[in-house]
Each structure stands twice: as structure tokens, then as C-alpha cells.
Amino acid sequence: MDKTEKEKILNKIISKIKEEKNSIKKANQIDNKHYKMKVNIDKLIQITEKLKNKTIREYIDKSVLITHNGNPYITYILAIKAICSGTNLDICVNETMLGTNSVIIKIIEEVLKELKINMKIVIIRNLDIETLKNKEAKIIVLQDKSQYTKLLKLNIQNVFYRPIYNLALYIDDEKFENIKRDIIKYCDENFIEIEIYDADNIDDAIEQLESDNEGEYVLILTKQKIDINKLKKDIKIYINKNILNELEEKIIEEKI
Question: Do 202 and 83 have their domain in common?
């Protein structure tokens, strides 16, 4: 897709989001009876503007199914990336914030229809195993490793695991406990998978984190000095840094 066509589609999506902002808010209010996350219209528009300036590679597979934990911003980013790469996309949100996710995808579907773009972007409530067995599309599990493991055990073909919206956390001082609680709360509200690591010392913690890591982001809060040159170069380890608000940025940057 050339830059002019991409801008035309994304500008139309921005206009449609503004037109349908009340529908998004209403769906979000209904979802808020069960979930704490609030979707900001301005943030959706900001994400769109950022994606305008990104080079988005085309998928080799022209039909992909991505399952994730239901964050509507992630759903939106995946949908926009699929449009820009010319990929038909099924997005499974595992029943999470289904109303908000569905309204966002409906807006995108309407734009595709108005612009006569022959593409399919679809929301799925939950994975149907029998359907997957006959599905030729590439399947990407974006966060939930247990779901990935389940699909492998059921001999579902063409499945890939991408835990790029997961967080591993190690804290070595009680003075960080308030921060730890805030991080856990943030992850809970934004459907981020988080694993808390426990170790006798910082060296043992790093050894655990480096051996267990499969693509998630690693956050270490410590008062000890760490020789960052000794860390594995392929592990995304952040020390004493707030990366929570950057996680969605990383989804924008990542090649999914």
C-alpha cells in the first residue's frame, strides 16, 4: 500500500471514530461493569497518527488469526496494521471487553466498505477448536502461553507464540512495594500478563529472568549496581525505568 492510499484510509478511520465516539463511550461504559479499563478517543486518534508514519511490512500470510487478552487499543493497532499490510485478520479477544472491541472493529469495517476495499477484519469472541483444526490461516497467540500450549497439545497447525505484551518483574527492596502494587494494578487494568520473580539476590534473579524469558519485557527495580554489559543482548531488560506507558508504543513498533 502506498503512502497516499494509507493516509486516505487512516484519515477516514479518524473521521469515523470522531463520528462514532458516543458509540465507543457507550460500549465502554457497559464493559466497565466488569472491567476497569477506559478507552480514550483522543488516544485512538494519536495511535492512528503514529501508525501513519510507520513502515508496516506485509505479511507473507494473507490471512492471520491473532488472539490476545482483549485490550481494545491492541485490537485497534492490530487491525490498522493488517489494513496497511493487506492482510485479512481475525482477532480473538477471549470475551474481554467484547462490546468496546466490537464497536471499534465495526467502525473499521464500515470504512473498508465505504472505500470499497476488499478486506476482512473480524472480531471473534472466543476460539473454536474445531474451526481452528480446519483453518489454514497463521495463528498468533500474542500473550497467553497457556492458550498457546493448549493449541499445540490439540495439534492445531501453524501456531506461533508472541509474548510481546507481557511483563516480568523483579524487585529487591521493600521500599519498592508501593511501586510494585501500582505496577500490578496497572497490568490488571490493561490486561497485561505479569509474572513476579523471587530470588535470593540480584544475580540469581537475572539468571532466572534470562533463562525463562521468551520475549516478554523484563523490569528490575533495584538499589544495587548492575553491569548492563553482562546482560544478554537479546533480552529486553529495563532497570529502574517506568516502561508501563511505553508498552503500547512497543506494539506499534513490533513486527507482528
Answer: no
